[in-house]
Amino acid sequence: MASDTSQKRGRPLEGVRILDLTRHLAGAGSTRILGILGAEVLRFEWPHPPALDFLRLSGPNADGVPGMNRSGFFAQTNVHKKSVALDLSTPRGQEILRKFVPLCDIVVESFTPGVMKKWGLDYAGLRALREDVIYVAASGFGHTGPLRDYRSVGPTAQAYSGLTAMVGLEGCEPAGWGFSYMDHMGATMNAAAMLMALERRRVTGKGEFIDGGQSQHGAALLGPMLLDATINGGTIAPRGNRDLYGDYAPANAYRCAGTDRWVTIAVRSERDWLALCRALGLDDLAARPELRTLVGRRAAADEIDAAIAGWTSGRDRYQVMDVLQAAGVAAGVVQHVDDKAERDPALAARQFYTAIDDDILGRKRYEGVPLTSEEFDSSITTPSPWMGEHTREVLTTVLGFSDAEVDELAAAAVIWEADVKREGRTS
Amino acid sequence: MSRLLEHLTVVELASPLTEWCGRLFSQAGARVILVEPTGGAETRSRGPYLNGHDGDPEASLHFWHYNTDKESVVLRPDADSGGRALAVLLARADVLVDAGTSPAVDAAAAANPCLVRVTVTPFGEGGPWAGYAATDLTHLALGGQMMVCGYDDLEHTPPLAPTGNQAYHMAGTWAFIAALARLQALPSRGGGKVGVSVHEACAGMTENAFPNYDYTGQVVTRRTGRHASLGPTPPWQHRAADGRYVNAQLVNVPPPAWMALVEWMESDGMAEDLVDPKYFIPELFREHSWRISEVLGRFIATKTADEFFHGAQARGLIVSDVNYPQDLVDDEHLAARKFWRDVDMGDGTTRTFSASTFLCAESETGPWRRAPRLDEHGNALRREFGIA
Predict the structure, then answer these.
(1) How far is Cα B98 from Cα B121, in angstroms, rounded to an integer?
(2) Beta-strand relationship, B320-321 and B245-247
(3) Which residue ranges in chain B fall short of pLDDT 70?
(4) Chain A, 172-231: which have a CB under 8 Å from a chain B CB?
(5) Which of B24, B50, B81, B305 has the fewest CB atoms within 10 Å around its CB?
(6) What is the total count of domains within chain B?
(7) What pLDDT is stored for residue A423 in this prediction?
(8) What are the φ and ψ backbone dihedral angles of B96, each rounded to 5 degrees?
(9) Which CATH architecture fits A4-221+349-423?
(10) Given CA atoms A339, B148, A22, B328 in this order, what sign does their dihedral have?
């Protein structure tokens, strides 16, 4: 919960309103970021398939009971938003959506290409409603190119872009990512797109359409491997945990005491190397002049790794990290989620996890954002919205509809409202 | 056509922690002045290098990749003249991106009340790990990425770190977001500083692992080629006839897509019992997922990875072939999306760089110019800014 002080500080995007048509993590994660930074995010959604965001039905669920207001994954991804349940498959629903466009700074969606055009809301259609509109399309493969109609989720984008293949042991099948990295990075890149366009408009007064494909964002994250491929050519393949281009050696994961307990160590220089040898008592290795050079340590990588593992294998992983960090050597425990939540002193001290209350979910913890500012608040204070929780509020306050008009729309099933009283929302 | 952020001047104090943020600015058309120490940016000594030029600081493809369009000037902010020069640069800059505070930089930054400063540090500027040493590998370990990546079918294998500076990509993108968001408050609040922690950027990107833990108390286990999960799950990744792999996570398969897939398999005589209507019931899909994966794997083994990728996507399935970086060079879709751009290297050659992945209707995005040589723009910048 934000303190009085933090509430007074405000958030940098206050005054920005977003018409949010995104789904899943790659889309909805981007408006989560802007919402936490202070934008008013109007999330348009619908409680029935196929329009229902499957994240609302994804586990884990509060008390293990499924329900579209009970998903912990959805809750994590949709803090600081308002939910407006509007049936966009109907002409009346689309007409109401159009009324919001002139009143919103940004329109963002994560549909496959063609959906917005079908509604007359492609960039030209949106511009006709608001000249300086910012429109960000966050699709899987982008709105142009031969694969524009292909669909992706995180693992698809990771596989296509080369990210999956670059996790693995030498000579083995790709190990890939154990989660949807490209949903997270798709979200941050989409957030960046919205903010770039906002910044341009701040100075020029002009709108913009940015078309970003999750799969291309993934390819961009291959980093220098891209130039290695276009300039040097040849085969690029992962090397386990060893440094791909051998800039750090030794660099690896080493087994520690306990089941599946590991620590990573990366030696960046001769100074690091000698410090590591001293800390671990590897005097014989320290005395060998050829190992003072990166080339020498790379050539002896197996021998060095065995010596380090011999020292770490019976020791507590955090103890290993602390001993090496005290010597100035980069070392980090391979932490699991419970380690981060319960044992990581840095995350605890910096209050990375925030517990907030929700009448259905109960008191749950939320991952924060990695930003610190003395002037602005970026803490998480507002739980995710229930489906249609803000339908009436937004229609009446933003569009100026009367309660009678809202009642009629509800009766016609064009809108849907959460039964806030029945659900017990008190905040 | 104008460049997206051409009105911005960004000063970047060279560091592995800042260069992706700087590149996002430079590829959006901002003017990025890269301040390097006397010996050059640390990442000029990072591989890969241009073939045959190992160790040459002017031939680091790592540096080339992250520093297109930037202007290089050598300054030592902690020396009097360097501090004054940095203050002159910052007086006309909109954004400073750096990787840690120092009295000299703090003093130089303080001279411009409208400056937005983003400081990226490994563990934040406070807390028990502030000042700890880190690399991309150790960040991915501490952040939780590694523990969920690896093999469940190869015994005694370690958790694996994804390759490619991903910790710095996560933090760099956040730094870019922080700077742009902070700029929006400029008219009302003036400049100011935002800190970005690489560790926290990583810690917040493991998808469903944290909600799963917070709601159930359970932790997920890494699986080969697919999401980590609480319990065993069937393989998504299958080897195709050409030896390449495909990712065939059958997620939220709509009935028409499922039927089209089964018809495709049946036309090759490989649907086996998947023609049974029980497999068509979405609610029972998860229950049958092991059998489906087994039969699908046999079918995929008869197709090339490309055949399956395009054939399955055409039928409404969300799948892909598993590419390696070198497979992207000739990819027609990326080419059509202008993912690659030839850049004049100034020595009579051109090289192909990856471009911005933001395609804009009203603006251009980069790259336009190769990465700078050390202090290449030092004299021009000193003249322009009146630095003695």
Answers:
(1) 9
(2) antiparallel
(3) none
(4) 172-181, 183-185, 188-189, 191-193, 195-200, 202-204, 206-213, 215-217, 219-231
(5) B81
(6) 2
(7) 55
(8) -115, 130
(9) 3-Layer(aba) Sandwich (3.40)
(10) positive
Question: Do B89 and B125 sit in the same domain of this protein?
Answer: yes
Residues lower than pLDDT 70 in chain A: 1-8, 420-427
pLDDT number for residue A74: 97
Q: So what CATH class is A251-346?
A: alpha beta
pLDDT recorded at residue B281: 81
Residues B249 and B105 occupy one common structural domain: no
Question: CA end-to-end span of chain A, whole Å?
Answer: 13
CB B86 within 8 A of CB B108: yes
Q: Tell me, yes or no, whether B167 and B67 share the same domain.
A: yes
Q: Does A330 touch chain B (CB under 8 A)?
A: yes
Host domain of residue B294: 233-239+245-321
CB contact under 8 A, A152 and B320: yes
The whole-number pLDDT of residue A298 equals: 98
Predicted confidence at residue B184, as pLDDT, reads: 97
Interior CA angle at B198 toward A196 and B60, to 5°?
Answer: 80
CA distance B333 to chain A (A): 5
Q: Which of A159, A237, A331 sits opposite B322 (nearest CB)?
A: A159
Query: Nearest residue on chain A to B28, judged by CA atoms?
Result: A196
Same domain membership, residue B130 and residue B53: yes
Instruction: Provide ipTM, 2 decimals.
Output: 0.97
What CATH number does residue B198 fall under? 3.40.50.10540
Residue B215 in any domain: the answer is: no
